[in-house]
Amino acid sequence: MAEILYGKPIAEEIREEIKKEVLDWQEKGITPKIAILLVGSDPASVHYANSKCKACQNLGFEHEMIHLPENSKESSILEIINKLNKDSSIHGVMVELPLPKHLDTRKITESVAPVKDVDGVHPTNRGLIMSGGQGLFPATPQSCLELLLRSGVEIRGKHVVIVGRGDTVGRPLVFMILKYDATVTICHSKTQDMASHTKQADILIVAAGRAGLITADMVKKGAVVIDAGINEVDGKLRGDVDFEGVQEVASLISPVPGGVGVLTTALLLRNVLKGIAIQQEEQGK
Question: Domain containing 81: what range?
Answer without folding.
Answer: 30-113
